[in-house]
User: Which sequence fits this backbone?
């Protein structure tokens, strides 16, 4: 099971650049780029909140759950 980040798709739909989003959210281009490419293991709720506000979207528009068949959660 994994969570896929779809920030790139939402940004493209809104025609918003990384620089513009960075300015609106107050997060560096480097950190947003890592989010955009899915190279992060965690996202702060405050960052997610700011991104959703800037992009006028819901968290579910950015985050997608994919069941890859691996049930590796500790029981």
Assistant:
């Amino acid at each position: 099971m994994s969570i896929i980040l779809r920030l790139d798709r939402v940004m493209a739909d809104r025609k918003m650049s990384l620089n513009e989003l960075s300015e609106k959210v107050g997060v560096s281009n480097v950190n947003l780029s890592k989010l955009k490419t899915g190279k992060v293991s965690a996202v702060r709720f405050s960052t997610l909140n700011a991104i959703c506000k800037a992009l006028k979207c819901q968290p579910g528009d950015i985050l997608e759950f994919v069941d890859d068949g691996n049930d590796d959660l500790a029981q």
Notes: Helices lie at 7-14, 18-25, 29-37, 45-55, 59-62. The mean pLDDT is 91. The longest strand covers residues 2-5. The longest helix spans residues 45-55.
